[in-house]
UniProtKB/TrEMBL annotation, chains A, B:
Gene3D superfamilies: Aspartate Aminotransferase, domain 1, Type I PLP-dependent aspartate aminotransferase-like (Major domain)
Family: Belongs to the class-III pyridoxal-phosphate-dependent aminotransferase family.
Lineage: Bacteria, Bacillati, Actinomycetota, Actinomycetes, Micrococcales
Descriptive protein name: Aminotransferase class III-fold pyridoxal phosphate-dependent enzyme
Organism superkingdom: Bacteria
Stored InterPro entries: Aminotrans_3 (IPR005814), Aminotrans_3_PPA_site (IPR049704), PyrdxlP-dep_Trfase (IPR015424), PyrdxlP-dep_Trfase_major (IPR015421), PyrdxlP-dep_Trfase_small (IPR015422)
Gene Ontology terms for molecular function: transaminase activity
Presence of the UniProt keyword Transferase in the record: yes
A Pfam family this chain is assigned to: Aminotran_3
Entry keywords, A to Z: Aminotransferase, Pyridoxal phosphate, Transferase
Length: 439, 439
């Protein structure tokens, strides 16, 4: 199954001897499930802030990674994690202070009355648990997701992740609807049309014998071409789902913790979610994720089913997560994501005006998408998108490509990416857009 | 849904003021999914080796936790994790050395030719992925599991975990079979009877339109009453499953990394697994888990579906996992688990002879089970098992209870539990067995 911006093993001869040797060992022991990025994979040995360093000591500007949101090798995270490892690391069947302190602080960042939290280790686990909760409390199985969504890799999360490709089965209890297309519709029309598609999806589920348990949407719709958080664009669809008795699950694994310039993406979209799933940036790379939600939903699920995740909410992961909140707040990284993101959006839009083949530029905070199309035909141009990504990689600036047609450049740096980092990114993008497409 | 040895919130008045206050906050923000252990929960603030310390500074002998296998607050783990946090923590789409080094070392501990590894974050994720792999490569959906198994909490893992109780749905594509009962059958008869039940399960699945994709068994059958790793007891059943085209998945989340005195439980049972799932002790509490398996299975799944786990195989989790292997080897903890486990088995058997109501004592390495039954009727006595667990907790020795009838005492200390720790455990058990059952 092809993946955008994945390394083709036939290109191994372009690597130096040491990397070729490491790649051969890796292929032998990790095998086919694993994919690398870029025509020439990056051999990462060190990270610091927005920089990664390779084995030769060369630095790369990281304009792609959304996990190390407070920076690679963040000293606060290291210090808090190290200190906690010296003291205690255990599960939540003993009373421990840190998980309660953090849960209070985190739930206080949501507009859900008396919100409760369950901690897990990955976004996939969080999505999977939210689905279990929604299905248990509604007594239904049906789920509505967007047509190119990615929500995770457990069997249940993969079943609502059509972006995993044609060999990933989507069962009959799942109905897919096209996401709003904000490149081609204004937000109000897009909102109404999306709600109409959700209505049709409920009808389709019922025709197959399933009532809807949940509507789940990634609040930036990243795999659906990065639609971003346009005002109130999901409100009518959420209302339709709610009226049909389905829960609304806001997937904030991509959007959350300041990526868009706000804590979460969903409030701007006019949604009042029943459950919210969190992941990637939560612990700056120490595995932690969670589900936040309505206490009555937690109560029914918890009473009937209970839930235990051995590593979920352990004091070490919680220490990392606490350090992330501190850094986001103390360094005002939400405001920075907003202003630096706006700057990048303006400058990328200007570059699109001076180069052919960039048909749309959009973004929410520090998450930008540039659509690469054939200037003559307007068709998606995955080959040129890949060429741009790899040209920038050779200039040691890291971005990636994604989207339904693999033609959308994805720029999504750590939130410590500052205004002073912008020129290096923009120069590399400019040069890549100016370069002829190698045949 | 009741859980053995779970705290009853009506007992909160027995707690001191500070713990009552923490409990109230916890209940408000974490809610019903979370359960605590013991009539008086332990407020853990510090750990060291086999000891946990509460808020008053009192020490507890930990004879229960199977995650901190090389000891609470292990200095090697802390040092390696801290050092790595200073350098790099990223995902596997860049070339990195540590994940390859560790994968080679780990797969070298298995008797599977050219074994490959995929790293995830939790045992649940590992089980879920093994099921996805088995279903994809066989093109089938059916799974056979034991009648009281626990394999995890994702939707797919919960679907093969009947020990989660009556509100946890078991779908029609899953067939449950009673585990071997080694308290009542000799290993050879148990093995033959189990294989016959697996044959019946295949027939039952086919009657519902499902061919078997996998047979999955926890190699110590812990939730099925801790059957342990009796010689060749699973061999005939594995052969039956294989002949029907199903993969064999060895769940080593409980048994693995030295718990039974060997690296893994399955070889002694005469099984050659297609896939092995690993979890809990792998990183001594830093989230890491994995699937080890046949390269041809990985090849088909990887080629068609691929797999990516953002935090899976990150350098920090790998650093913890490497430190665990070093400690297990350098401190010869497998041999110790075997000799200390044998000692505990002898001494617990002796205690059972001097006290009424312990109808069976069995164990594999440092994993022991004591069945508590009514001496008059022979019936399972969950109330007395709970009383013993709580009596020991009041003497600051931590074990728990489980089993189909919640009457099996579970003794499962960190592997650094030494011969010199045994008297404190045995004295507390002796006192608890001698105590009258409070009415």
């Amino acid at each position: 199954m092809h993946m955008a911006n994945s390394f083709d093993p036939r290109g191994a001869s372009a690597l130096d001897v040491a990397d070729r040797e490491l790649l051969a060992r890796r292929t032998r022991v990790l095998g086919a499930p694993y994919r690398l990025f870029y025509e020439r994979p990056v051999h990462a040995v060190r990270g610091n802030g927005v920089l990664l360093y390779d084995a030769a000591g060369l630095d790369y500007l990281d304009a792609y990674n959304n996990v190390p949101v407070v920076g690679h090798s963040n000293p606060q995270v290291r210090e808090r994690v190290s200190a906690q490892l010296d003291v205690l690391n255990t599960h939540t069947r003993y009373l421990t202070d840190a998980v309660v302190d953090y849960a209070e602080r985190l739930t206080g960042l949501f507009d859900i009355a008396d919100a409760q939290a369950v901690f897990v280790c990955t976004g996939s686990e969080a999505v999977d648990l939210a689905l279990r909760m929604a299905r248990h409390v509604t007594g239904r199985r049906g789920v509505i997701a967007t047509a190119h969504a990615y929500h995770g890799t457990t069997e249940a999360a993969a079943a609502i992740s059509p972006s995993l490709g044609p060999n990933n089965p989507i069962p009959g209890e799942v109905e897919l609807v096209a996401a709003p297309d904000l490149a081609r519709e204004d937000p109000a029309s897009a909102a109404a049309a999306f709600a109409a598609r959700v209505t049709e999806a409920i009808t389709a589920l019922r025709a197959r014998g399933h009532e809807p348990a949940a509507l789940i949407v990634d609040s930036v719709m990243s795999s659906d071409g990065l639609q971003g958080t346009a005002a109130r664009v999901l409100e009518p669809a959420a209302a339709v789902a709610g009226a049909a008795g389905a829960l609304y699950i806001a997937d904030e694994v991509q959007a959350g913790f300041g990526r868009t310039g706000a804590w979460w993406g969903y409030p701007h979209q006019g949604v009042r979610p029943d459950l919210v799933v969190l992941g990637k940036p939560m612990g700056n790379g120490i595995p932690i994720a969670g589900v936040i939600g309505r206490p009555d939903v937690f109560e029914v699920f918890g009473r009937d089913v209970r839930y235990f995740n051995t590593f979920g909410g352990n004091p070490v992961s919680i220490a990392a997560a606490g350090a992330v909140l501190d850094e986001l707040e103390n360094r005002r990284l939400l405001a920075s994501a907003s202003t630096v993101g706006d700057l990048l959006l303006r400058e990328c839009t200007a570059l699109a005006g001076t180069h052919g083949g960039v048909s749309a530029v959009r973004g929410s905070g520090l998450f930008l998408a540039l659509e690469i199309t054939d200037p003559a035909t307007g068709a998606a141009d995955a080959a040129r998108a890949a060429a741009i990504v790899n040209h920038m990689r050779e200039n040691r600036v890291l971005i990636s490509a994604s989207g339904v047609s693999a033609n959308v450049l994805k720029v999504r740096p750590p939130l410590v990416f500052a205004e002073s980092d912008a020129p290096r990114l923009l120069d590399a993008l400019d040069a890549a857009l100016a370069a002829p497409l190698a045949g």
